[in-house]
Write a structure and sequence with these properties.
With 449 residues, the protein is an alpha/beta fold. 40% of the residues lie in helices and 18% in strands. Helix 2 runs parallel beside helix 3, helix 7 packs across helix 10 and helix 9 crosses helix 10.
Length: 449
């Protein structure tokens, strides 16, 4: 027997879905123009077979310009189960929809639980959209606005991840609140999902353009910041503590921010064994502003300093405009990671935090001076590949280790932090053979779009 949640819990999911969609539409940043659709909760539509109305959880009526009757109807059924949503539920929903509006009616099943594989296949064959919702309280990144509402089409390699999210009970989402299957693709993008579900090839493109927003409305809510912007932010912060070179005293910077904003910083925090499924190095919440750096074995001072600088960067950049809270692990410090699992907004926030953290720990002017002094000491000359070139040759590896090791010691940073900083400043050309790296410069260029 299916274990259904209480009516109260079911209604809560319906309200979440309704309010999420309604918020996007009222802000006119949804796929449909706000004046072309109407939202309803628990609305009934007449069934000739029953001789009475069938109540649907959420309904969206879509109107062509000037029309008094809707041209398309989107009906959404919400499932707040403990177990998988069975194929019989999808069949029952399809049957109910056929009774009230077979023509131009679009169907979506939203659930907090995974779907049985049979339900997924049945939905695909009948053109039913599937949406699995994850409460943001369990995410690494909790945003003020739905991460799926700002997402673009998922990369092809994410299709397998989305399929797992739809069917696996143990799947844990790190950033996206919605994983969806439209009649034609798997996606994390709410815009693309509704684009597929609603029209497909049923309306001429000219008519679709009259009732939908231009795709330019689907844009990141996080503004792009140049490297120069981030460098200025770092130097402004460091000037307040009288920085003059060498290892940055982060404790003094934290004390200054405590006086300025009430920021609370806790270090050496013990992790809760029941917290989340991935190891946490640091965390920030913005109301009230609190940073925590966790005690993680084995202890690594350079890693802990970068963790604190990373969270401080979120604070200094006022990322509380977009984030409610954030936590980070080792993988979040890699600029080469794919953005597919996090979405554009989160990827931009994390990149900005990493680059500002590097700028705080290794201020450009001071690092540049120390770097070139080290090159002169080692008699390393630029042979046309950049000031410091490293490949797999022993002599170049030795020079690389000497320069990076010196900067690690002088600035109290890890090897990876020093390397990323040198690359982002254009001082290091890394040509070592490894699987699929993307240059730091190309990453910076890509985030401008």
């Amino acid at each position: 027997m299916k274990h259904r949640s209480t009516t109260k819990k079911g209604d809560a999911l319906e309200l979440i879905i309704r309010d999420l969609l309604q918020t996007e539409i009222e802000a006119d940043r949804f796929y449909l123009k706000k004046e072309q659709c109407k939202f309803y909760w628990k609305k009934g539509y007449f069934s000739k077979d029953r001789g009475s109305e069938i109540i649907f959880d959420v309904a969206i009526e879509v109107y062509l310009p000037g029309a008094e009757k809707y041209s398309h109807l989107v009906l959404i059924e919400c499932k707040n189960y403990k177990d998988h949503v069975p194929v019989s539920d999808a069949e029952e929903f399809f049957s109910k929809v056929q009774q009230v509006a077979a023509a131009n009616c679009k169907m979506i099943i939203a659930s907090t639980a995974p779907f049985q594989h049979g339900a997924v296949e049945y939905a695909r064959s009948k053109g039913i959209g599937l949406l699995r919702y994850f409460e943001p309280g369990s995410h690494k990144w909790e945003l003020h606005r739905s991460s799926s509402a700002t997402a673009h089409s998922s990369a092809a390699e994410q299709a397998e991840t989305i399929a797992s999210a739809l069917t696996r009970e143990d799947f844990a989402s790190q950033a996206f609140d919605m994983y969806m299957q439209s009649p034609s693709r798997a996606t994390n993008s709410l815009w693309d999902f509704f684009e597929d579900v609603l029209f497909g090839d049923t309306l001429p493109p000219a008519l679709i353009r009259r009732i939908t927003n231009p795709r330019s409305r689907l844009k990141s809510q996080v503004p792009f910041l140049t490297m120069e912007n981030l460098e200025r932010t770092a130097m402004k912060a460091l000037s307040t503590i009288g920085y003059s070179g060498g290892e940055v005293n982060l404790d003094v910077l934290c004390s200054h921010e405590a006086l300025r904003t009430g920021l609370v910083v806790e270090t050496g925090v013990l992790s809760s064994p029941n917290a989340i499924a991935f190891p946490v190095l640091g965390r920030i919440q913005f109301e009230p502003p609190t940073i925590q750096v966790y005690a993680v074995e084995p202890m690594h001072r350079g890693r802990d300093r970068f963790t604190l600088a990373h969270e401080l960067a979120h604070h200094l950049l006022d990322h509380g405009r977009f984030l409610i809270r954030e936590s980070c692990d080792d993988g979040d410090f890699d600029l080469r990671r794919s953005i597919g699992s996090t979405g554009n907004d989160v990827a931009r926030l994390e990149l900005q935090a990493n680059l500002l953290a590097a700028s705080l720990l290794m201020p450009r002017a001071f690092v540049t001076s120390d770097f070139h002094q080290m090159l002169r000491t080692l008699e390393i000359s630029d042979r046309g590949y950049g000031p410091l070139y490293v490949d797999d040759q022993p002599c170049n590896l030795q020079n690389f280790d000497a320069v990076v090791g010196h900067l690690m010691q002088r600035y109290g940073v890890s090897r990876s932090a020093a390397q990323i900083r040198l690359e982002s400043m254009g001082l290091l050309h890394d040509a070592r053979r490894r699987s699929g790296p993307q240059s730091i410069q190309s990453i910076l260029a890509a985030t401008a779009h």
